[in-house]
Amino acid sequence: MKKKQFICIFPQGENIHLMKDVGMIPYSLKKKGYYDTTISFYENQRNLPFFKKYFDGVKYKKINKISRYQGVNIFIFLLRNYRKYDIVMFIHEGGLKFFAALFFKIITFNRIKFYFKLDMNSLVLNSDRFANKNFLFRIKSYILKHVGLMTVESEKLNTFLNNESYLKTRYLPNGFLNINKFNNIKEKTIITVGRLGTKEKDTEVFLRALENMDLNDWKVKFIGPIDEKFYHVVEKFYANNPSLKNKVYFLGNIDDRDMLLQEYMKAKVFVLTSNSEGFPLVLTEAISNGCYIVSTDLAPVYDVTNNLEFGEVFSIGDFDQLAIILQKIVNDETKLPNPDDIRRFAAHNFDWNIIAESLYKYLESDF
């Protein structure tokens, strides 16, 4: 029997996105044998080294950038190719995407299924976007219910959207690629991974926390590209805290996945200071390697820490609170859970293969 054809359309995709949900969902669906899968970006395939290295069996189809409007390019791409596919995946919501989905469902007599991975952040919980439940709200609710499957990455957001919005969603978290390589020797190291110094990552909060604590024999590693405007902040930090030069390290971006994995394996604690995130994939990478999570109070943190069994949260921007939490860890006042328990929890709940199985069941149901 011919397998159904699944395509993930993400025009702005780059090489790094292949190792995130954009690439991992098609990869895992193919690996599990559920569908034949395709990934589509604007980018030429030759500029995607991860695709050649890791995505055996997954197809690639380039999207032509005809218009400066992404929605127009998506619509034209589907108009030319819709007969080839049974399931179309989009990342994020959007009016033009919803319109395209509705249009192609109509002209194919509901043959094509559409899947929207919404990737919403916790700010939605405090917005008034869904507050006015007027006639238009009810119309949107009716239309979107028939457009396709929509998932969000945290239980908290899923509950909120189903109770307070015109979106009817299912819970589907982000995951990690389980390669079963463990290093049981944990070091007294705290790490953070991401685009250091950007407004969203709020890295300066971490530096200010470090200024207000004693690391003793612990080390801290900042991993990731540094925003150009942040260099002077780092220089000022070292100038004001010369004793931390041999304890706090900026390693830069680590492109080699095995080298990055080693840093996760060695670390006892992972810190996230973001003020706005959907579901940071670094969280699942951290718990899959047995790291204790210390993060800003974001919705997905409760999911990845089993409701704070394997981590703690602090208020966004509160470096004093972060310093107190980390100092207790450094002083051994906070007893960290066994890394193997964290790994087991991650493997049972956030392995991409398990997530692919859940998605497959959603897609093969009537939503």
Automatic annotation (TrEMBL):
Protein origin, superkingdom: Bacteria
Domain Glycosyl transferase family: 185-335
Example of a GO MF term: glycosyltransferase activity
Gene Ontology biological-process annotations: lipopolysaccharide biosynthetic process
Matching SUPFAM superfamilies: UDP-Glycosyltransferase/glycogen phosphorylase
Pfam families: Glycos_transf_1
Record keywords: Transferase
Name assigned to this protein: Glycosyl transferase family 1 domain-containing protein
